Queue: 4 jobs
Job 1
Amino acid sequence: MARTLVNVPKKAKRGEVITIKTLISHIMETGFRHNSLGARIPRDIIDSFVCTYNGEEVFRAALHPAIAANPFITFHTVATESGTIAFKWTGDNGFSAAASAKITVE
Amino acid sequence: MGENDTTQATRRRFLAAAGGAGLMLAVRPAKATPASMTLAIRRVVGEAEVKPGKVKLDLPPLVENGNTVAISVSVDSPMTPQNYVKAIHLFSEQNPLPNIVSVRLGPRAGRASISTRIRLADTQNVTAICELSDGTFWSDSKHVIITLGACLEGMI
């Protein structure tokens, strides 16, 4: 399981725009590099990132090899209700990782 | 000593020649061109017109290491259910592939602003395009100078 790090505020006011920062450890091998023997290193990237807020999708990103290793994504969402913000990364070779954070909305 | 000098010089010449040969033998991967970036943009926007404005692309003008370039995009939008940003796309002119990232947003985003870290293979223009809920497309481009391009050959 890849290491993930998500930064979601623990508390927010209803209707407040919150900033979410996510980081995941992944090599993001582009598929354009060659090893010392000249053989092409096969592509191995995360190609999809989805954020859901109490089950409803609020953000989605399609990543390409031009995303740097250990993808870092910052985005915003409106704090609507208390609950869980879940994150899911999927990629090549059946890669899948998930993380979640609780938020209390007052 | 003199003999040693000659050996050193020969060795140096050999190494220089070997290095040169290595450079020539290295296979350059196919690069995206401004034309292929235009094509990739057309694939996203279709026939719609892309106007400059509304989008603000933020990335450093001079980058030392193309392997990680911090980039942020923000769009001037009220983000209401009637008027919001549907998607933001980033494109590169000189990377092996023109697409960098595509994100989907909705009115629940509250603020149309994202940031991430990207790879840039060479000095080039980077373009951000946003799609608004009314179906219009807006863009911004920045020129960025890369001192060390993202590694395309060999292991790090």
Job 2
Amino acid sequence: MINLFKIAIRNLIRYKRRTLLTASLITIGVVFVLVFVSITGSFKAMMIGQITDSMLGHLQIHRKGYVASIDNLPLNLNMKPKAYTKIETLLAATPEVEAFSPRLKFGGMFSNFTETTNIRLNGVYPEKEFQTVPLLTSRISEGKKVLNRGEIMIPTLLAKGLKVKLGDTVVIVATNADGSVNGKQFIVSGILESATGPGGRDGYVHIEDAAEILRMSEAEISEVAIRLKDFSSLPAAVRQLENKAAGDVDKEGRPMFEVHSWEQLSPFFNIARMIDVMTFFIKIMLIAIVLISIMNVMIMAVYERIREIGTIAAIGTLPGKIRSMFIIEGLCLGVVGAIIGDFIGIAVVVIINMIGIHFDFAQQKGMLLTATLQPADLLTISVIVIVVAVAASLQPAIKASKMEPIEALRHV
Amino acid sequence: MIFSRKTMKKGRRQTVALIKAQDISKDYKTEDVVVHALQDVDFEIEPASFVSFVGPSGSGKTTILNLIGCLDKPTAGNLRIADTEVVGLGRKESAAFRGKHLGFIFQDFNLIPVLTVYENIEYPLIMVQNIAPQERKERISRLLAAVDMTDQAHKYPHQISGGQKQRVAVARALVTNPALVLADEPTANLDSHTAYAVIGLMKKMRDDFGTTFIFSTHDTKIVGEAEVIFRLEDGRLIAKEKGGTKP
């Protein structure tokens, strides 16, 4: 085998310019794919991180039917305290769960005593919320990173629109489940930067304040946001929680709860899928580049070496070894192109990070993209290139191995 | 391996033929025409012979060498080489048979350009016969010395002369210890001095290793170096003559 490699490498060196051109083409393809995968992958990961770690959590549990009406924030579809206790017990017994935060969501009127507008609010236990969505505190552009009773954190657009500042007193008026209206004064303790996606322009109050406005003797729960220890275990965790929650049924025997991952709750998931589709097509283009360039070079190699093939076949080289010789040449081209491409790709990503890519995404301004290359990406792309290189060599190699030595020796 | 098999039968010493061809014919078909390249050729060649097939262009020299070299199949007839009926061999079996029993010397030398002289000789031992490194080294050193190419061992084919290339080709053909070496016009691309030197080298190799050499040529001076001469004309074997003296 070592000798087959030796001969293959020497044959590649023999046609230096052609080998260099082909390897360069593969290298350029690998570099472009790696840079694309790195930037889009990092953008996707960053946005998913923003969405899950500052608003949604990795997954959520609601009372059955709540998500279908989530735009209305229906109070009649909240979990009763007894039902929430079941979820709390279930989550406490699930080792994959790092933290969870019950929320009481409601819509209300926000007034600064001169102007009034509508607002969506989350009643939360601040410590639990900050553990479940740790980037929420990073969205607090003004004010303290705590939320006490009687305090409210409001989105920056609302603060600007109504000219509300930190420490101002505002009034929240909300309609209760029975249709009556109640109001409560709050001190503005924090201004939140807006974030892209559902819940990105919501305000926050303490859950006990929310229950007080809504005249609930004990807080009902609209949703439970959950953070996992390992984000990659999301699909398994969703299945596991669905199975566990499936045992809880209402009087009519229907499931009481529903489990949704962030993917089902955020429209950004469709953008993420688009990124995946684009990445897939970029990889297809890479495959085409490798396939065409290597097949071209190997067909030429076979054509130019017909007499040599005849000679080695005549002296007894078995067809399988002749086939292997050409496949190994393709393999070597693929390996060289992939390795050089990997190194240059890594270098380009490092340079991009040194320069720094800043971008705006909806209301989020000046985000810095840190391009990263996962070892899995390097491995996947390298394996694709090498496998395609071998596949591209197969046809010329088989042709070479099937040549009749007598005809090959006659070739001029 | 030195191929020199003799058997005793009914108290009489008999030499077993290395090659036995019976009624060999070979036709080539084009669209409308059938060309009879060989017609009903019979011959026997003994081990350790130095044989030449001679004749004008188109007489069938190359065809007969191709058949003996298992590079082609006869249209009719039987051909037995080294106790093997080679006509029925498949593609892989033919390759294996060639690798085990036959050596080839080509008119254009056909050395592998990316391999050095040493590596060209080594090639069949690695790629065809899978010989252990130590034995490879011994065989190659012996043959390099025999063809007087030891000091050129690490040169590439493009760095040596035509005569030297053919000496390397002789060494490559012999390195697998074949029973038979086939050389199709081995001196056609060499000047007369070098041609004689190569034929002399082949003869010496036959003497040293007991290998049968069969070569084709149209060079009348070179023909005389063969010990057995088969004359071909229009695809028919017309004469078997005695040439130089077999020791």
Job 3
Amino acid sequence: MSRDADVRASGPVVLLAGLVVIVGLTRTVTDNLTHDVLLYCAAFALFIAIGEVMRLTLPGGRQSAPLASAGALAFALLPEWGGPQANPGVPLALAVTVVTVGSIVGSVPRAFARRSVLVEELARRVIVTLVAAFLFHAMQVLLEDNSFLRPETLGDGTPAGLIDPKWTAAAMALAAIVASVVDALLAAGLRSASDRVPFGTAVLDEARALVGIASAIAATGVLIALSYPIMYLWALPIFAVPLLLTQFSFRRYATIQATYLQTIRSLSKVTEVGGYTETGHSRRVSRLAVTVGREMGMSQRDLDDLEYAALMHDIGQLSLTDPIPGGATTMASPLDQRQIAELGGGIIRQAGVLDKVADIVERQSDPYRPHRGQLDTELPLESRIIKAVNAYDDLVGASMESDRKLQALERLSLGTDREFDPEVVDTLVDIIERESVFTFPGH
Amino acid sequence: MQDLPVLARLYVGAVTAIGAVIVTFSLLVSAGMVGREALTGEQWTAVIVLSLLVLLSNLIISPLRQSVAKDQRIDIGIDMPVGIASVLLLGPFGAPIVMAVMSFAPGSASNDRQLPWFKRAFNGGMGAIQAFLAGLVYTGLLGQTLIDDQFEFGVKPMLAMLAVIATMEIVNGLLMVTVISLTERVSPLRVWFGTMGESAFPLFIYSIFGLLLAVVWSFAGWISAVLVLAPLMVARWVFAQFAARQAAYEATMRSLIKAVETKDLYTRGHSERVSRASVLIGRSSGMREDRVTTLRYAGTLHDVGKLGVPTRVLQKAGKLTDEEYEAIQQHPARGREITRELEFLGEAIEGIHFHHERIDGRGYPMGLKGEEIPEFARIIAVADAFDSMTTTRSYRGARSIEDAVIELRRCKGSQFDPVMVEALIEAIEVHGWDVTDTLAETAPQPSETSMPSLGSDDDDPTARARLALHVPDDASELDGINETSGEGS
């Protein structure tokens, strides 16, 4: 979406994180840190920086830096800092400072890439670190006050031993889980605002996309913090290994996912290369269909199917003995349209793994109200979207003329009594209006 | 089990029986009914937590199980770290219990439903023996399990841990190598240095996670199992998804290839066979394995450009007009256009683009000569012609492999690269060739009347004479066309 939308969405988050960082930095600078403490801080900052450099793209396009996030979480959850009695943990200000410095140093190589995204990510990490550290400290204080939790309480009730590590571990795990949930909610909020997705859908999407990597990050962060009193800095490289393995498998999955989409996109060109459809038709239809679907609140999973179906919606034409003039299926007779749809669905169904996509393609030509205004309740939303967007692109094509667009939208609006889903057409009109300058009369 | 050699059957039975005895004995000891080494409360917790985690991990990936089962290499081992951890935490009598649970847990790699029952039983027996021996080694060296005392760094405990890993891997290796060499009748050394050698390193890495789990457990309790295994479980889950996606990917490609072939009835299975023959040529001429993979794609996709040729033209039985010839001749270029943006195809794209070029420079679309033609294209040209000759076409029946070989030899140097021709012939002599002419049963047999030879319809009498000499495949229909147009210009 536009830059403005991005700024509006990330504004409050970045502002909040910025305030936190400023307060954290000033407090850290005014504190007197010992040589040892500085060394440990530097080690964690370095770990976060390395993790930041090894950033990866998750399947579906989200960015993640698992090692950096795990390092930040671990630092926020360190149980002993400056001796058992001195502190309940790392001071909040110091945690924020180390995480910020590490992330910024690690971002230097990427500083020339899209800056706004990195700022958002950094802002999220700072807020999440603060939440985790705060919660953990609060729980530590609670544990300190409850002497019965100590395993070796003396007869008169005075605490003798340390808190049982199991309770510390439970506190860490709880703080990590809450922090991950906060992170997912922040991400969902940002995405919802920038891509115009309803918030509920965005939360579900983020939860689905992040549950795997977030649980691996949380587990690693807690593990490092938990074993820190025994392994010290060795915990960092040792427990990074399982997470690296996770990262590796995510990378392979993301690669095959991207290749799959790339292949379908390429193969969707066959109808164009063969002169069956206009150049760029499939891609325009898929892009517009996905935008419509997203704004109508479809989940990412359904959007993927919609994209595949839209890319391959004309594949049934390959079985035609002769191309339709101009390739515009909207101009063909309803019977031919239905035949193309069914042939296309048949080809896709053969793959055995794209049954949902085949269903969508099969029903792409079916009218919204087939019998005297009666609704076809089983017609998938995806098919209704493709029907409308396909008709729109058949009428407009690659043309940029406002007149043509207006006429096409008008024709679609007239068809809402039988052919097209009015809600889909409304959303389509909204999108086209936003992209162009004109306003659609009566809208 | 019936089809196994007698020795193999005896061996599998013995391993299973020993495993069963160990597990039964371990249960008795652990419950305190025999001896004095009953498991403590925390050790029973370990048995339960570890078993539950294995069950959970299997549950998560069970919907994706089928694709993983097809290719075991891409499963991430969770069994090995759990096995090592249970040996360190539970000793020789507790660990076999976890191993038994693991091998009978639904969805375990060792309990795959697609495996026959005796293989599953063998896997279970093997796990119990491994764990028992490794447990004896560990408690023999240190006198106690890790759960009894907080771990402290030192030479002796570290060596004991390494000894546990070594015992597990060596016992596992020996038992596996024996069963493989008995069932497949290969020398045990070959198995050991082949498949076993490859899996030793990944197994070692997974074992380290088992050590970590046990060490952290000694001071933080059961939550360490969750924390150490979580990233592995996630990695395993993502890998399973990767495998499923890859299977989906291949299925999609195959069905799109079928779409090409439904347009042209007489080329059913053609792409698949050309791909197979190309791989044979590539391998026998010593090509690197990653290039062979790309070559396989090239073979499968070589005719994808035909999707862009109107079905009417492809299925036309009679004489083709000049325009129609031209439409067919465009299929390599269209194939290139379709596949151009697929980065992973690499060299394959050139192979698709130039698979109708001839060594003597009279092919199309560019009329490249000799070495100018990319290697992949020279390979596919031979494979393409060979498959066309040995399968039924609209204008003639299938030829025998011997006849096809003679034809290939005759046309080498003019139409084909001699090196590739010889490579194919050599490979077929070694590996054989399965024609599986699907058309012979499903399509109408070619009769005299349905043999409208393209050559005979041609205006150029010389082209007709040449066509009779040359390889009559669908390629040569086009070659004939090319020759006419070549000479006409």
Job 4
Amino acid sequence: MRSTLLLISLLFSSTSLLATPLGLPEVPVPADNPQTEAKIALGDKLFHDARFSSTGDISCATCHDAKKGFTDSPLSVSQGIGNLEGTRNAPTVINAAYMKTMFWDGREPDLEGQSAGPFVNPVEMGLKDHNPILDIVRTDPEYVEAFKAVFSKHGDAVTMTEVKKAIASFERTIIAGDSPFDHYYFGGDETAMNESEIRGLQVFLGQGRCVSCHTTNQNTAIFTDNRFHNIGIGFARVTNDVTSIVQAYQHSKKQGEDLDVAVLTKGNVSELGRYVVTDKVTELGAFKTPTVRNVEVTGPYMHDGSLETLEDVVNFYNNGGVVDENDPVDPFTSGGIRPLNLDDQQKADLVNFLKALTSPEFAQSAKK
Amino acid sequence: MTSRRNFIKKAGVLAAGSALPLSVVELSHANTEDNFTFAFISDSHIQQIKGNQFVQNWDRGLQRAVAEANLLDPKPDFIMYGGDIAQIGTAAEIDHGLEIMSALRGKTHYVMGEHDYYLDLGEHWSKRLGDQYYSFDHKGVHFVVLNSIVTTEEWTNKWSSGEERMGVMAGLDDPRGSPFMVGDVQRAWLEKDLKAIDDATPIVVFSHSPLQKLFANWNFWTDDAEQIQAILGRFDNVNVFYGHVHQIQYNQIGNIKFHSAMATAWPWPYPNSYAQATNYMPKLTVPMNRADPFFERDATGWQFIDIHSGKADLQYILPDNDDRKLAYNKDTGRPEDTQYQVKQKASQKHY
């Protein structure tokens, strides 16, 4: 076991430039936004600043709380200003740096693009536009100094571009590997996982077919294929009316409705998934494969937070994409989702394996 | 870095052409009220394991095509099924496939495939679906459906059982097989059916096997193709749609444009030609873009077709891949891939 001192240092070292943890590749950093200590610190401050909401009490960290695995666990869908509810479960920021697209539907290509959305979403931070943020960062002495130091810019030259870059830089430091699985699989420590966890890994790689989408590499594992799949969650709510929902959505889109607002305020539009980004019928109800690292601390699960426990998730997949094994499988469900015929021991082992993916810095959260 | 506002603006522009509701392509020279769309689903190969258990992957492919085709807006005027709804042609397979098809909203016409036929010589299929060859008229276009997968009586009757006959015909490269043909009876019927039709009337023919000779070993072949092409030769405007090949093919012979359907079940490759095997495969100009051979729906899908002034534009819907559109090019007078004919996308080479 690791020392408490090390745990604490890991928990609070996110502002420094960390060495890559065991099991993770190097963090991809865009050429136009290199990591610097000062920029990361600035991003950290912006991430936690609740003044960037219409009510003054919601920050990025409200729904991406470090103590809750950078989610708002145990909420199923996020709550923004005035306890307004969105439609989707807060994805963790942990290891988001490795994702090729952002949000459950991948509607933004990178962390920079993602970071500006929630400020102006009516059910998240509720600002009308980004101007209140710019007013603060251009006048608050600490911010003025920091933006000058990081970007050599002040006054009107400070724009959302700099704000987004700083937040993204901070988020690129929130990476976590080094789990018992990493020590067992990549570190060669055969004692790092117990027998049940090792059997669970075999289920994950074999009969459970998890690895088909939660992919691993030779020396690292992000546990996502960065693709979008309709796995049967939520879509049953809209499947009978999908034609009219799609038509209504296309109509309001032509009228200029904001994609961000539409998916978080309209439950039936939310369920269209990746389709609203690509307009491809084959991506109806498809959502991005999330990582399964630290999944023990980020429940509830799925894009709508509709499954409470990891046992529920395993049962859902074991039933072939339905909560109750007698429920009909929706025709839009991906063909890769099929009954797994796992027995109770295999299911328990799989859950234990998933819990072996918890990084040491989140082990404390897991015990709660 | 794309700003989200710009992205939405761009998406809005894109939506006009590529979004559902999917719209019929209207050409300015066309008499637009006669333009229409039909959906085309083919080769589902529904396969029974035992009892009410069927191969799930094939079920899913068909279910998905049906669900997606139901989203077409404006609604297609009708739906064509291109054959091989079953794998070994049992009543259970055909019935199960038709049950999935029954979720389609709209009139459906069916083509006979060899997998539907060779167990009981099409008896159960005909009991459920009626005639094996027929014609109908729709908005000024004359449609003909042929059963192109029959063969000689001698071959048909030489087997000890229907199961044995089906087994031989179901395999590729089986030397005991026999070439498909439309045959004397249907050709005589076809001539009679077309007799009163004016040369200027657009003709659309559906068959399961291509009414052109491509590759004999896999029966990408109809033995009396030349004779049928000759019967169709006098018309200004002929399109032939076929299934069986499980891939996107298009070709033109004389006045006749040929288009294939993708399968909902699995893809076949473009046949390589061995020296020993007869083949007339046209040069491959656009390789199949396989998004991921490990993806269970890779290179399968369905298609819908816009008919305008008798010309056909095909939209191929591929899951987890780029959709493809094949349209009549009025400058060259041929069907062409609208994106890849000029700018080809490299096929994935590492497997």
